[in-house]
Design goal:
Elements lengths: L1 H29 L4 H12 L9 H6 L1 H17 L3 H4 L3 H26 L11 H16 L3 H11 L4 H32 L6 H29 L5 H29 L8 H15 L3 H25 L3 H33 L3 H7 L8 H13 L4 H29 L17 E5 L3 H12 L3 E6 L2 H9 L4 E3 L15 E4 L3 H15 L4 E4 L6 H5 L4 E3 L1 H14 L1 H7 L7 E6 L20 E7 L2 E3 L12 E6 L1 H11 L3
Helix pairs in contact: 1-2, 2-13, 4-11, 4-12, 4-13, 4-16, 6-7, 6-9, 6-14, 7-9, 7-16, 8-9, 8-17, 9-16, 10-11, 10-12, 11-12, 11-13, 14-15, 14-17, 16-17, 22-23
Length: 640
């Protein structure tokens, strides 16, 4: 009872310190530094080697927090390996991944072998231990940071071949890293303990991998049962967290039991089990979206705790001594990533320009690398602490340098879609509004506020300067003179002049540019059929008011949303132009939770949608949701 109370007090104290760590991380972020750097610094300050707010024995008692965090890291890595979204670039992803694994592992292990004599804490180690350190470091040099990659992609709203390659290689490589680590870890145990590598060792290794797979399938079954219950999200998240941690507990129990009763230590790899469970869940069940949302909700608190504890465990004297080695390994890793990316891209047939910059997308490291280093520190007391310290120094360097390089690569590739200084998107949709009365001005302002680039075409040259003085983009318009408007890039035309002029405008844009989004304010002076023949959307002010009033009576909520009166909700149309999504069912799109697909228009046919409706190139998709989420989906469906 006293031990449980002591553990509770230690955990409560750590929770308070973790809150302080979050504040320090947020402070670092203000200066464009990675959050995890702030968490690590906070951990160093509160640890036994600085202020001593947590003692070495406290850290040992909090080891279960590390294991919970490692479980979430493994689950997050597996959940990102969604095969549907990687299929269009699978060839390049495979070759670049193989290139980086072979080259970076080889030169990284070689460099660590020769640098091991420079690290405080590696003195007096035999050849077997040095070989173990070299291969373990070579594997960890391969690790990436899916969370950092996704954060940069989201920040820059990036989309294109490099974006797909970066995300695909990052996820696939982390899966490979965890699998490789499981094998190298077992080999390292044999080398350090001088166990002969015969058929017996190979059999034990195969049994370990089989047990890891069995634990993964068991965890998958547990997740399916938990997520299909009618539980509140916080309870499901708790089940995911403790389910992942439970694999560590079971693996430890198997190791103790086998050592005591079988005479041989069987050590399943919990990280591999968690990764397998998450991979199967997101690819083989309909629970992917809910599972990912739960992980996203868990990750911030878990990462704060993990990185803070990692920082607290660092020996400052070893950390200071490790920086020269970390810098050299950092340089070696850059060389390996560049050569592997370039060679893999050449084999895959990617353009030379893309191959020259793709390496810049693969520098960041975070959770997986630190998690594996923590496991080495726990398993090999003779050199584990020094090993983990070198890895932490290396991760800090990669986290500082990696995100800016990735941003630069995306900009060089022309795949960013950030907001311009005017507040509109740099690939904004363009509209031309013909007219200069109050309704035309109100429409122009409304569209501009929603991300459109709007040009007013006024038939009165004297009005143009007045409109420009009001902050509007305006130009003079004469019937038949459309070239001055630069109309070729227009996505929509709204004609709000006399019917005869409106008909001439619509006919020109339909015949010359094939524009389908033609909107007309109708006055009844020209037969409406003449507009309908051109596919125009005709708005009769008189009947429109009646229809609108009726809609408010029948469905007030729906009318408010369509009119933009519902705060935070919009309805937009977007054309599906990404070949990678051709044939993908709606249910597999991973749309934001607040986005609803209202309809799909294919040619002149309206399709009633459901989860299994397959998207096709050229589909016009009607979406409803928040402006931020809609912009994300518009980029997802747009041209790569």
């Amino acid at each position: 009872m006293e031990a449980a109370l002591e553990l509770l007090l230690i955990f409560a104290s750590f929770a308070v310190l973790a809150l302080a760590s979050k504040q320090i991380g947020d402070y670092f972020a203000k200066y464009d530094l990675p959050l995890i750097t702030g968490f690590l610094v906070a951990g160093i300050l509160i640890g036994p080697y600085a202020l001593g707010l947590l003692s070495q024995s406290d850290l040992e008692k909090l080891r279960f927090v590390d294991e919970m965090a490692l479980a979430v890291i493994a689950l997050a890595a597996g959940s990102e390996l969604y095969l549907r979204e990687l299929r269009s670039r699978i060839g390049a992803i495979v070759w670049v991944t193989l290139g980086q694994i072979v080259i970076t592992l080889a030169i990284g292990a070689w460099a660590m072998w020769w640098l091991s004599g420079m690290v405080q804490g590696f003195e007096g180690l035999g050849p077997g231990a040095r070989l173990a350190i070299a291969l373990l470091m070579g594997v960890i040099l391969l690790a990436r940071s899916p969370s950092s990659t996704i954060a940069v992609i989201s920040e820059l709203r990036a989309k294109g071949p490099l974006t797909q390659l970066a995300l695909g290689v990052t996820v696939v490589k982390d899966v490979m890293v965890i699998a490789l680590f499981a094998i190298v870890f077992e080999l390292s145990r044999a080398w350090v303990m001088d166990v002969p590598l015969g058929l017996g060792f190979l059999l034990v290794l195969l049994v370990d991998l089989a047990l890891s797979a069995a634990l993964g399938y068991g965890l998958l079954y547990f997740f399916i049962r938990a997520l299909t219950q009618r539980w509140p999200p916080w309870l499901k998240g708790t089940a995911v967290l403790f389910g992942g941690y439970g694999v560590f507990v079971i693996a430890s129990a198997i190791e103790r039991f086998s050592s005591a009763y079988l005479g041989v230590a069987l050590v399943p790899e919990p990280l591999l089990a968690g990764l397998l469970a998450a991979f199967l869940l997101v690819n083989k069940t309909p629970l992917r979206d809910e599972f990912v949302r739960l992980l996203e909700a868990l990750s911030p608190a878990v990462y704060i705790a993990f990185f803070t504890l990692t920082g607290a465990s660092l020996a400052l004297d070893v950390l200071l001594a490790a920086w020269p080695v970390a810098l050299l390994l950092f340089a070696v890793r850059l060389v390996g990533v560049f050569l592997g990316s370039f060679a893999g891209g050449l084999v895959a047939g990617d353009p030379l320009r893309l191959n020259a910059i793709s390496w810049m997308a693969f520098i960041t490291q975070a959770g997986v690398a630190l998690g594996l280093a923590k496991k080495v520190a726990d398993a090999f007391p003779a050199f584990g602490e020094a090993f983990a310290t070198v890895v932490v120094a290396l991760v800090v360097l990669n986290q500082v340098v990696g995100p800016p390089l990735f941003k630069k690569a995306l900009r060089l590739a022309g795949e960013t879609h950030t907001r311009g200084p005017s507040g509109t998107l740099d690939d904004a949709r363009d509209a031309i509004v013909f007219g200069d009365d109050d309704q035309a001005l109100a429409l122009a302002r409304r569209l501009a506020a929603r991300g459109w680039s709007v040009k007013l075409a006024s038939p009165d040259p004297a009005r143009v300067e007045v409109l420009r003085g009001q902050g509007l983009t305006a130009t003079a318009f004469r019937p038949g003179a459309f070239s001055a408007l630069d109309p070729g890039g227009a996505d929509a035309v709204v004609a709000m002049l006399k019917d005869e002029e409106n008909l001439e405008i619509c006919r020109h844009f339909y015949e010359e540019y094939g524009l389908e989004n033609l909107v007309v304010r109708y006055q009844g002076r020209v037969p409406i059929e003449r507009f309908q023949e051109l596919g125009c959307m005709v708005v009769d002010p008189t009947t429109a008011t009646v229809h609108l009033l009726a809609q408010f009576v029948e469905s007030p909520g729906g009318a408010a949303i369509f009119l933009g009166l519902e705060e935070g909700q919009r309805v937009v149309d977007v054309e599906m132009r990404d070949p990678a999504l051709d044939g993908v069912p709606l249910r597999e799109l991973r749309l934001p939770a607040d986005v609803l697909v209202l309809a799909i228009h294919r040619g002149h046919e309206a399709i009633v949608t459901h989860g299994y409706t397959q998207l096709r190139l050229g589909d016009r998709v009607t979406l409803m949701g928040s402006p931020e989420s809609l912009e994300e989906v518009m980029i997802k469906l747009g041209a790569p």
